[in-house]
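Handout, tutorial session.
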Amino acid sequence: SPKHASSLVGVSGTATTLAAMYLKLTEYSGQKVQNTVLTLDNIRSLMQDLFLPLEKRLLIPGVPENRGDIIPFGCIILEAFMTRYGFNSIRVSDTDSLEGFLKLANK
């Protein structure tokens, strides 16, 4: 159960997009996004901008054209999950769990 986890790591497009928005990146950088910590308050603040019309949403630094239409929904789900399970922050990773498993396997 997520209730027993001590920390939360986001590897999805939602988490990386929110980190890019938080960092106000005009060009995506996985290195800059890597290990960004977003608080629940940060996410709620970013969420306010995501309810603009799509044309205006796409002008927000960090929102890529191919995610502008779906990022509000991902943000709602992430905020609800964090609230439901009591997480106050999420660490963002530009790499996914498969990469971590591969590193462990090569030890």
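The second record follows below. Compare its token runs with those of the first.
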Amino acid sequence: REMLKQFLKRKKWIVAEAPNCRKALEEMEKGEINFVVSDIETPVMTGVEMAKEMKKKFPEIPLILISGNILPYGEEIKKLKVPFLEKPFYLEDLAFKINKIASKAK
């Protein structure tokens, strides 16, 4: 997580981090989050569960899910139409995906 955070900061993005998806949703409530990158397997709440909540409460905030274990979540991710990157991935691939999604959201 630290490596990802530092990479995004080097790309001049402002990064906020949360210890789990529940806390991330709380941060979104404050209205200062405009893009989310989350692992699927996090404590307290999965990234897929967070994606469902985001679709209801924050449909305007783009989300990318990442994981090294998509098997248990593949069908749900397809239904939610959430972009996904499988670990391991190149950080530049994530940057490309973020830029692509962000440009569509404008």
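Points raised in discussion: The chain is about 50% helix and 10% strand.
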